[in-house]
Amino acid sequence: MGSVCIGSRRRRLSLYAFLWVCAILTFSGLFLLTMRSVDPSVGIPFPIKSLEGNVGLRSRITGCATVEEMGEVFVRGFREEDLRVRKMIQDHFALHGASRVRDLAPVHFCSHGFVLGKASEAGFGNEMYKILTAAALSIMLNRSLIIGQTRGKYPFGDYISYSDLAFTLREVKHLWRKNRCEEKYGRPLVVRIDNFEKPTQTNVLCSNWREWEQSIIWFQGTTDAVAAQFFLKNVHPEMRKAASDLFGFPELLPSRPNVYGELMRVLISPSDDVKAAVNWVLGGGDPDISLHMRMLMNRSVRAVQAALNCIRKAIRNLHEVSRPRVVLISDTPSLIKEITQNVDEFAEVIHFDYQLYKGNISDEVNGVHNLDFRVKDWGPAPRWVAFVDFFLASRAKHAVVSGAHRRVGTTYAQLIAALAAANNLEENTSSSWNFSFFSSFQSNLLVEGLGSQVGWGHVWNRFAGPLSCHDQSNQCAHTPFLPPAWWDGLLQSPIPRDVHRLEALGVDLSSLDFKVPQNGAVSSPLLRWSQDHGDE
User: How high is the pLDDT of residue 338?
Assistant: First the structure.
C-alpha cells in the first residue's frame, strides 16, 4: 500500500508541474504577442519619438500606428499648393518651352541649358517617372526639357501623345549646328550624366547642379517619385530652395503639391486610338471612382474584400450620387469577374474588355507586345490595354483606390491617381476640391506592419519602419499624391534596407533623433543634417 501511495503522490506532483509549465508558457506567449505590435525589433536602432507634441494622435497611439492613422494627414488636399505648382509649371514652359527657345538669337540659344529625359518601353510607371523627373529637374535648374527618342519614336509613342513643350535630341543637335554654338561661341554640345541608382556616381546631395556648365544634363536611374526629391536635402542652399519651391517641404506632409500629376497634365495625353477606346467604354460619362488591383495572377479573397470595403468608404464621401460609376482595372482578368459580381450590388461597373473592342488599336500587330516572361508581372492582355486602362482610370472624378496582392501603391497606381487629381482640379471656381487616393490593405499584408512595402519608390515605403504597427486589420488609408522621399514627417520611419542604402550616400538615419516639432515649429533632423553639411 505504501508504494502505491507514494506513486500516486508522484503522479499528482508531475501533473501540478505540467500545469505550471503550461501556464508559464501561455503567459510568455501572450506577453510576446502583446509586445510584438509595439516593439517590432527591426535590428536597426531608431528612436520612437515621433508622437511627442501631437495630442490628438498621442491619445490614441502608443508606440506605433496603423496605416489609416498614418494616412489621416492626407485626408484634405491642398488646392492652393496644387494651383501654385500648376502656375509654376506653366510659367516655366512659357519661358523655357521649345516654341520659344528654338527661336532665340544664336548668342542666347547657345548659352541655354537642357535636361534629357529618356525612357525605354519597359514598365510604364517606372519609365514615365524618368521623363517626369527630367521635367521636374528642368524646372529646378531653369533649363529646357528634351524627351529622348529611339529610332525616331517617343517612348510608348503608339499610345501616348506628347505635347510640343519639349525638344527632341535630334532637333537640339540640328539647332546647335545651325547656330554654330561650338565654332562661334565655344560651347560644345556635351551631356553630363548622373546615375541616381549608383551611390558612387551621383552628386544628387553634394553638388550645385545650377552651376553645372554642360549643355545637357541626363539624370539616370530615376524610376520613381523619389529621385528628384533628393535635392530637398542637397547641401547647397540654392538647390534645396529650388527643390522645395517645387515639391514643398518634406516635413510638411499634408501640404505637399501634386507635382507629377500636374506635369503629366501638360506633357502627355492618350493617342487618338487609345482615346477612342476610352470613350467607347465610358459611353459619354466619366466614372466616379477607379479601382486598380495589382494581383500578379493571384486570386485573393482577402484582397477583394478589403478593396470592396475601400470602395464603399470612397462612396460614402460622395454626395448626390445615387449609383456611382466604378472603373475596375487589373493585371488579372479572372479577378475582374469576381469583383464585378460584388460591386454591381451598389455601383455601376465599368471595365474595358479588349476582346469585345473592334477599334483600330485592337487590330495592331506591331508595337509594344507582352513578352511571355512578363505575363505574371503585366498580365496576359496585349500591352496596349494597359494604356487604355491607365487613361480610363485617370478619368475618375472623385477617388482612386489601389489594392494589391503584395505591394500597394505601385508607380502605375501612383500616376493614375496623380493624373486623375490634376484633371479634376479646377482653377476658376470657389468650390472645395476633394479628390482622394486610397490604399487598400488586407490584413495578411500587415502582419509585419508595412515592412512588406519594401519597394524604394512605393508610396508607403517611407512609413514601413518600426512606427508601423504589426498585425493590423484590413486598412483603407488616405494616400499622398506625391510619395515622400524622406522621413521628416509624423509617423515616418525607415526599414533597415533603406538605412543601409542611405549610408552609401553618406546619410546616417539611425543616428538621427526623429520627433514631431513642438509648438508648431519646424524641427526636421534631416533638414538639420543637410544644413550642418552645407556650405553656408
Answer: 87
